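Quick one - first record:
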Amino acid sequence: MHYTQISPDLYISGQIEEDDIADLVRLGIKTVICHRLDGEDIGQPDFADLAAKIRAAGIAHTYHQPIASASAINSDTALLFQHILQESELPALAFCRSGHRSAIVCSLLPDDDE
C-alpha cells in the first residue's frame, strides 16, 4: 500500500485492498474514509465488505463519503469530511481510486494554525 501522510493525524492513499488492512493497523489508523463510489471499476471491493474486514481487524470507524469526480468536490464536501474527522478517532486514512479526490478534499480543510 502506498500512502501519503498529510498531517500527523491524516493519511491519503489509492484504493486499499484486504491485504492492506494489516498495514493500516500497524500505522495506528483508527478511522478509514472511502471517497469512491461502489462499482467504479470491475473488481473493486465493495466498501461495505471492506469496511467489515477493517472493523474485524480492530479499526472501529469506517465511513463511506462517495465523491463521483474531482469536479464534484465543493465546500459542502469538505465540511462533511471535516465533520467526519472531528467526530472520529485519529489518525485517519482517506482513500479513493488513486488518492486524487481524497487529496483535493484534504486541501480544502482549514489549516489548524488559522
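second record:
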Amino acid sequence: DAEVYVDGYYAGIVDDFDGIWQQLRLDDGGHRIEVRAPGLNPLTFDVMIQPGRTITYRGDLRIIP
C-alpha cells in the first residue's frame, strides 16, 4: 500500500504500477520519485525519462529505527 509521489504530487500506490500493463507514464525529462509508507523510511530517487525508453526500478523501504 506504499504511496508513489512524482515531483511532490501523489501518483497512486505501488501496486498501480507493477507490470507491463500498469506503468507509471511520465513526461520526458527529469523527475523525483518518492515512495512512502507509514512506519518506513521513504525511498527517494531521481529519474531521467527519455522518449520511447522504459526504466524499471526496484527498491526496498526500510523500517525507521
